Amino acid sequence: MAFVLLGFALEKLTGLSYAEIIDVNVFQPVGMEHSKLSKPLDTEGVIPNMTNDWNADIGTYGPTGGIFTTASDLARFARAIFNNKLLDGVTTNAWFKPHSYSGSWSFAYGMPWEIFRTDDLLADSDRIQTVVTKAGGLRGYSSHLVLLPEYEISIVVLVAGDGHALSWLREEILKRLVPVIESIVREQTIKRLAGTYISSAASVNSSVTLEVQGPSGLIVTSWISNGTDFLARYINMSQGVGGLAASGKVQLTPTGTERGKYSEVWRSQFIPDEMALKGIINIQLITDVDTFTYAARSMEEFVFRISDAGFATEVELPAFRTKLVKHKRPIAETLAVGRLHPLMKPIELGD
What we know:
Elements: H1 2-14, H2 18-30, H3 71-82, H4 89-95, E1 100-101, E2 107-109, E3 114-118, E4 129-138, E5 141-148, E6 153-160, H5 164-192, E7 195-199, E8 207-212, E9 218-225, E10 228-229, H6 230-238, E11 248-257, E12 263-272, E13 293-294, E14 297-298, E15 301-306, E16 312-317, E17 322-327, H7 331-334, E18 335-336, E19 339-340
Antiparallel strand pairs: 1-2, 2-3, 3-4, 4-5, 5-6, 7-8, 7-17, 8-9, 9-10, 11-12, 12-15, 13-14, 15-16, 16-17, 18-19
């Protein structure tokens, strides 16, 4: 009933019919040329050989789900969401957040989403992933729009016939698609960001080495600042926050923000292998960022400069007032006892 009332309110506010509102504000901007609220010709539809609502007139209940559409059009709608074509990025991110919780650890209600959280999608990782969905259907028809914000990937499943097929298709697609996407993301991260970054100033002994280590993502394996092993210092400082264990790794996490057209902002964070102190309330959050600052700048901020080809060419560490140039060789070949190899010069990333 809430969406019926919303439909009436929109018509009163705009002076247009609900069908016109959706056409002008959604269908046309997104390019959903095969979507409408009125029934298309029978020759254009898939009519199941069972009791169905193909010819049903739901009248004022149109705002609750009376759209005739195709999988391609729904995919265009999902892409428009991720590309912020309908809403800005901040609003879209807020739209994907839960508005109320359920009796299940893994399920929450959105507006209007059904939001699931699971660690079952990757065999080699227990990383929790958020799956934002919207299911619907009438007699003889079932639909499910599945959004994976972490990858900006969508899955559209439309079934005319037995609705049980939708659940099976959705699960099989997710189980097979997500590991493939994850593998592609890891390969792209290796090519785009992983490597050794070294100060181009011969008098400055500073460098950072980044590696993609399986499900752990982009890991800082070496961090030298003016000849000091800052990685060890950073881990040591992090262990004093929230009762962390002695062992762990330093991971880079994308913030989803940019500094200009050709930059990406990431944050480092210490990920413990296991919490030293365990309890009902655990104050250590692995998504905490900017725990340490210097001169009001985050010591955990990494700003990558990206070339036209999409590869990182340097990384800036604002708190350290330094920029490091990317090299192709691993740090073991370029550094000896903490000093820059005299023959090593910056290499342009063009191939």
